[in-house]
Design brief:
The chain is mostly beta strands. It has no helices and eleven strands. The mean pLDDT is about 95.
Length: about 120
């Protein structure tokens, strides 16, 4: 069973930075896509950024230019560097991994880490 554990959330002032980490229980090279999603209070979960096994990245328009997703295969980890944080970035951030077995896709989620941007 795949386990994903996020860390690095917390309280930060507007304009500040945080780096989220997601540690996988196995090799991340087994995953087709890894990504970060977030769920603001009272809203639906939304894509923040994702990276495919070929290194292709996608970002939501709201974080483009401020957030960077990266991976470290040696540490089986995926990171989200968040700069120039805004109050609207406040949310629970989740790590997600997608594995393809033939034509079947299995999704795995972490437990989430809270990010609060406030003065």
């Amino acid at each position: 069973q795949v386990q994903l554990v996020e860390s690095g959330g917390g309280l930060v002032q507007p304009g500040g930075s945080l780096r989220l980490s997601c540690a996988a229980s196995g090799s991340i090279s087994n995953f087709y896509t890894m990504g970060w999603y977030r769920q603001p209070p009272g809203k639906q979960r939304e894509l923040v950024a994702r990276i495919r096994s070929a290194g292709i990245t996608n970002y939501s328009d709201s974080v483009k230019g401020r957030f960077t997703i990266s991976t470290d295969n040696a540490k089986n980890a995926v990171y989200l560097q968040m700069n120039s944080l805004k109050p609207e970035d406040t949310a629970v951030y989740y790590c997600k991994a997608e594995k393809l077995v033939g034509s079947v896709r299995d999704d795995y989620w972490g437990q989430g880490t809270q990010v609060t941007v406030s003065s």
